[in-house]
């Protein structure tokens, strides 16, 4: 299972987990400041490059897990069940009459009156 957060260390030494999908930007000023999309800021001990690496590893793990989960469904997606779209009239009386004569249109679409 892929963790949904990255772990970081505050300047005080306490470790916390952060959802990296909420990060708007990471600055190095010289402390590393993480700004979230809602404006919340966190100052952390990890250098900018380490934060970027943690985000990259997290996102890579998500993609790898997605590919692993999808690998089992390749056989099903290669041979999808056949389906067809059928127009059903609002009036049930028209249903028996319309099923007797299938409608066919050319690739150019339905004809207008006067087109021949």
Helical content class: 25-40%
Largest sheet: 3 strands, antiparallel
Spatial strand order of the main sheet: 3-4-5
Going by helix content, strand content and strand pairing, the class is alpha+beta
Rounded mean pLDDT score: 81
The shape, in one word, is elongated
Tally of extended strands? Answer: 5
What percentage of amino acids are in beta strands? 15-25%
Can you count the helices? 3
**Backbone CA Rg:** 29 Å
Q: What pattern of helices and strands is seen along the backbone?
A: EEEEEHHH
Rounded to the nearest angstrom, the distance between the terminal CA atoms is 63 Å
Instruction: List low-confidence stretches.
Output: none
Pfam family, one: FlbD
Protein name: Flagellar protein FlbD
Keywords: Cell projection, Cilium, Flagellum
Region (Disordered): 67-116
């Amino acid at each position: 299972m892929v963790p949904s957060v990255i772990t970081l260390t505050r300047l005080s030494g306490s470790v916390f987990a952060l959802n990296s999908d909420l990060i708007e930007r990471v600055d190095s000023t010289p402390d590393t400041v993480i700004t979230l999309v809602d404006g919340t800021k966190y100052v952390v001990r990890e250098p900018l490059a380490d934060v970027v690496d943690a985000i990259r590893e997290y996102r890579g793990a998500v993609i790898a897990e997605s590919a692993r989960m999808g690998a089992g469904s390749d056989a099903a997606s290669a041979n999808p069940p056949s389906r067809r779209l059928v127009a059903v009239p609002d009036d049930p009386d028209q249903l028996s009459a319309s099923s007797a004569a299938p409608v066919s249109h050319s690739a150019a679409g339905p004809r207008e009156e006067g087109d021949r």
